Amino acid sequence: MIARLEDYKSSCLKDRSKQTVAIIIYSMKNVVGTYCRNPNSKRTTELINSASCANEATTEYARCNSEYIDLLLAVENSKDAKQQLVQLCW
């Protein structure tokens, strides 16, 4: 997966987008290295054990994220600057 991201970055992106994806790839490599270097470590076991809890939160996260996107779209579509501020501070 990381190799595909690197190919995409090199082939399709420029400037700021390319830099942003490079940072994401670097971070992913570090995380993979941390957990895959020693798959039987306490840290890896704790990560795997936390997956069920994270999975339970997925639905709530998706709902919250959807509401946030709707809010941002409402702010973007509002013509009144004061109303935009009110919506952002809601």
Please, could you describe this protein's structure?
- By secondary structure, the chain is mainly alpha-helical.
- The protein has helices spanning 2-12, 15-36, 42-77, 81-89.
- The chain is flat.
- The two termini are 39 Å apart.
- The model has no long low-confidence stretch (mean pLDDT 86).
Describe the secondary-structure layout.
Blueprint: H1 2-12, H2 15-36, H3 42-77, H4 81-89
Helix pairs in contact: 1-2, 3-4
Cα gyration radius (Å): 19 Å
What spatial form do the alpha-carbon principal axes imply? flat
Strand content: under 5%
| Poorly predicted runs | none
Number of beta strands: 0
Please identify the oligomeric state.
single chain
Proportion of helical residues: over 70%
- Helix count, DSSP H or I runs of 4 or more residues: 4
Q: Write down the overall mean pLDDT.
A: 86
Going by helix content, strand content and strand pairing, the class is: mainly alpha
Please provide the ordered H/E string of secondary-structure elements: HHHH
Outline the biggest β-sheet. Answer: none
Task: Compose a concise summary of this entry.
This protein is mainly alpha-helical. It has 4 helices and no strands.
Q: What characteristics describe this protein?
A:
90 residues; mainly alpha; 4 helices; 87% helix; 0% strand
